[in-house]
Amino acid sequence: MESNPLEEHSLGLLPWFIAATQILGLAAVVMTGVWMGYYEGGFAWDGTSLEFNVHPLCMVIGMVFLYGDSILVYRVFRNESKTTVKILHAAIHLVALVATIVGLVAVFGFHSAQNIPDMYSLHSWCGLISIILFCIQWVVGLIFFLFPGVSYSLRACYRPLHVYFGLGLFILAIGTSLLGITEKLLFSIGSTYSKFAAEGVLANVLGLVLIGFGLTVGYVVTRSEWKWITSPEEEALSMHFKTLTERDSPDSPQGS
Ligand code: HEM
Questions:
Q1: Structural domain contains residue 176
Q2: Shortest-distance Cα residue to atom 7 of ligand 1
Q3: Of 2, 103, 218, 244, which residue is least crowded by CB atoms under 10 Å?
Q4: Which of 4, 10, 79, 29 is nearest to 220 (CA)?
Q5: CB 174 near ligand 1, within 6 Å
Q6: Ligand 1 atom closest to Cα of 121?
């Protein structure tokens, strides 16, 4: 089969875009670490503001960086088998979920130790919604795509929903982080924020880096030439699976 030179040229750009996502993602994690570790006094698990500091770092690592990376695996490991990549996708999501839970326990623990009311802000509402939907998406994805026995057509029906909600939740997580950044700045440097305090500038740049990460990941995963291509062997296997799972279905030609 002849290869399309335009397509090959565009595939050549993919590693550069992937590298850009990693630079932006890691920069966001490091900047959050510096903000909380240096400007906000460091980390501890003692109910003080140092425990709060665990929250932004874990959220940026889990809900943003690892979440984004788990979406990218289908573009990065294009030559691996689909099952391997699916397992990697689910595994990175699982690590992201663990980081997210640690971050959530930290902020709820801090609030309860300091008698601060829970769940009053737009940030916390968006945050909890995104975490609940993230858990649902993970469990439903696991059932549909990794458990044997779910029919081919059911998987095919669910796939667009999984992709849509996956990207939607990623955008929601970045938006939530932006709300959290502004809220934290108003709490901690409210009076000097308007004077371009170094901490404020760092956190604003962190917000821009998070947006840059989101846009770059979004571009990579939505560019049609970079989408996952099923190999002829896998195509044959999935057709075999389709035949097997739908042999007895009432709307299949063999089923009646
Ligand atoms: C997707 C990422 C994030 C999620 C899902 C999230 C989720 C949450 C949730 C559910 C709460 C409420 C805790 C409670 O009521 O006891 C909260 C609190 C808080 N978060 Fe985040 N957060 C995220 C990222 C961040 C980031 C990056 C910052 C930046 C510093 C931040 C700053 C805060 C602050 C200041 C609070 C306490 C005030 C409040 O309840 O709104 N969050 N977060």
A1: yes
A2: 127
A3: 2
A4: 10
A5: no
A6: 41
